[in-house]
Amino acid sequence: MTHADPPRLQGDADLRNRPDFAELLRALCRQAVGDVHLDLSEMDFVDVWGAVALVEAAGALSGGDLVLHNPPAALRRLLDLLGAHPGLRLEP
């Protein structure tokens, strides 16, 4: 993650770093007041468990949405396959 506004996640979210990715999302959401924005333009790969972690983080927010900016096309398809996600928004 880089220190930008919104935070920019980089690299992969897969089996190798699943616990770290999920904990990062939980930490960002715990600190949140309102929407949480993440820039995913530099994510190379997000597996199904990474997609589920994003959905779970969105569901844990109270009073705001998890807004994913520039998610990779493969992640968009995964999220479509997983169905409706209250509290999760995708921005171009």
From TrEMBL:
It holds the Pfam family STAS_2. Signal peptide: none annotated. It comes from the Bacteria. Residues 8-92 form the STAS domain. This is STAS domain-containing protein. The lineage of its organism: Bacteria, Bacillati, Actinomycetota, Actinomycetes, Pseudonocardiales. InterPro entries: MlaB-like_STAS, STAS_dom, STAS_dom_sf.
